[in-house]
Specification:
Number of strands: 0
Radius of gyration: 40 Å
Shape: rod-shaped
Number of domains: 2
Strand content: under 5%
Length: 208
Amino acid sequence: MPAETEPGEKKTGRKLTPAQWALAVEKWELGAVRLADLSAEFGISETALSLGLKSRGATKGRRAAEHARSVSEAVSEAVRETAVKDALDGAELRKKRINDTKKEHYEWSAALSKLAMSRVLKAQKDGTPLSDAEGDLKAIRNAMEIIARGRQERWEILDVPSDIDMAELPELVIRDLTDNEVDELRRQDEGDGLDVDVDLSDVPEVDL
């Protein structure tokens, strides 16, 4: 489409195309530029610009509020999307940490429970009083309590006490066993092959 000639354009010999006039009108109506700015950008006089804008019904700043609203909505949407992404990433990380804590502490607690039972069975097999194993069992219990405190600290940091079923984790209870209970443990050991070679490399060290 041929360039359109406006009064004042002949002084510079420059004519704006319809697309350039449409851009000039848009910038003028958004209200962010002056005539001097448009004159420098498009290379025609301010007089020519003023007449050309007027002939096209353009009013300075007429779309400023609309533009500001669009920018505000775009910013709000960007902020919302970022917040949602951050929340999802945070929730995923929190979930992973909860699962890691449950897995680690279950394994540690189960290992200590097996160690305690193996000590009880050893006393029974050796024919020694269970009271002789009391020191070892209390040391294991102390290790279990350390693990439990560490687990509780993680729960508090992750803010998830109500989310966890504490019954999922084994609890070590130290008490005197009856002869019948000891016999039952022995039978289970003989029948199930209780593995007393437990990997305790990740369990806090205790002196038995």
